[in-house]
Design goal:
single chain, globular, mainly beta, 14 strands
Length: 171
């Protein structure tokens, strides 16, 4: 499709599953206040999507919501998000930094799988669970700080993090 930019109405509260999937020309989207949910696969394979302005009301990002958005460099996730779903940002190869909001308690399986440019990760001390392969293939990640509330680290969560020099684990 030739759709490049999207500005949504203030009346919209949720964006349905796969709503903009494979909009290959989509470069930016502004999500207004009031949007609380981005459903599964909403922006999956929007390979030109580089800029997402997310309102602070966001509480849910579905599975594969931004998967394979290869030009996405950064994203602000607000302060109400409770979970980063499985595959939510997988294969976002240009993504360089992520700040996990303090409200997030769970990072799903393969949430940031193969985000090869991810070099800065600010993890919240409230994260209790990191899913399998969550950061697998994040080959630019050099440091990870994990906190005392963490209860579970899934299988191969950090496999392929070849630049990893330091990981601080809770005692």
């Amino acid at each position: 499709s030739a759709l490049q930019n999207v500005e949504l109405s203030l009346d919209i509260q949720s964006i349905g599953e796969h709503a903009f999937e494979k909009c290959f020309s989509l470069q930016s989207i502004a999500l207004p206040e009031g949007i609380t949910r981005i459903e599964n696969g909403t922006f999956s394979e929007c390979v030109s999507l580089a800029y997402v302005d997310v309102a602070s009301d966001l509480t849910y990002v579905g599975e594969s919501a931004f998967a394979s958005c290869e030009q996405l460099v950064s994203i602000y996730l607000g302060n109400l998000l409770e979970e980063i779903s499985s595959f939510a940002f997988s294969n976002c190869k240009a993504l360089t930094s992520v700040v996990v909001p303090s409200t997030v308690t769970r990072i799903g399986d393969s949430a940031f799988f193969n985000c090869a440019s991810l070099s800065q990760l600010e993890m919240s001390e409230n994260v209790q669970s990191i899913g399998g392969y969550a950061f697998s293939g994040c080959s630019s990640l050099t440091q990870i700080d994990l906190y005392e509330g963490l209860q579970t680290i899934g299988e191969s969560a950090f496999s392929g993090c070849s630049a990893l020099e330091r990981m601080d684990l809770p005692e």
